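Researcher: Here's a chain I'd like modeled. Treat it as a single chain, no partners, no ligands.
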Amino acid sequence: MLGWPVGCAAPGAGAAADPASVRPGIEVLLADSAGMVRDRRVGLVTNQSGVDASGVSNVVRLRAAGVRLVALFSPEHGFRGAAEPGVAVASSVDSATGLPIYSLYGRTSAPTAEMLAGIDVLLVDLQDAGARYYTYLTTTVDVMKAAGANRVPVVVLDRPNPIGGRVQGNVLEEAHITTVGRLAVPMRHGLTLGEQARLARADLDLSVDLAVVPAAGWRRSVTFDRTGLPFIPPSPNLRTLESLFHYPGTCLFEGTNLSVGRGSDAPFEQIGAPWLDPAAVLRTFRSAGLPGVRAHAVRFTPRMPGDGKYADTLLAGIRLEVTDRDSYDPPATAVHLLAAIHGRHPKEFGWVPKHFDRLAGTGSLRAAIEAGTDPGAIVRSWEPARRAFLERRRGVLLYPE
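Model: Modeled as a single isolated chain. Structure tokens:
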């Protein structure tokens, strides 16, 4: 067993520090718990988001501390975070260090026994996006499975949930577990990657020696811009904190024939299509009086959008703006927009049925919108499962409110 038992916080993790003094797990490891990696051969699962509070990469920090780093592993988008979503990434060699970079989003999604040979402990240091659809949890789960099978301990170097600890949206049904929904959690789950790893260990009965080094000083009510940490986009189309707040809702439009703004100046902050009537849709949407969000009509042209939707085509769109983070509910907002667009454009609007249901975590959301069910009623129907999740997650939480 490494360091401390699963569930125990690293030294100082529970301190009620000023938000600006939040330290990511990489700093806590090296300052308080270096014994976990001392005299061990270390593998590191990371990407461009793995930096300390000064923006120095975890690779540089570990090597400067004398840690024997022997291999790197990268998730979707690659080690530099530049690959488009869903694009397979090849393994390579890091030109700065000469270390192998094994891609876990290409020929394999999990480290092989050959990749793990000679590694004594695996560190995972990735910035999660706060939404169920994000694939870094799937990578972490696959790493945990492979590491467990090869008797290699896993240490997650935790980072804050960038959009805080609020929990919103429907809970994924187990029949819809995929790479974009690995656990039965809500669309906006309110957990850190370390807490998700702990939940995965319990829910999936994973046999792995797991420890989490928490982010010291973070509280669930603290969003990323109040941590004092540098904001590094976790992937090419989540460029701003604003986009991360919308992502638990607007990502659902990936399963439709509307653009989510890929290839524009504001991906996941706006949606659009050539046939969309924003004025009519907005009249219906605004009548719901949803709190915390403002929507207005825009026009945008996707350039090399990556998802193939409406490249170089002028689109009529709707852009969202968070006005109050405490009351904003992105999944509810997306459901109201979907219902309004489907109602206004029943012939033009289209689903990518299999993908939408994977993202929604259920087949019932699409069916309810097609049936004309009141979107408010749809959102209210999620509440019992959401409350049950809040109880189920209690045993994995590492941070105060």
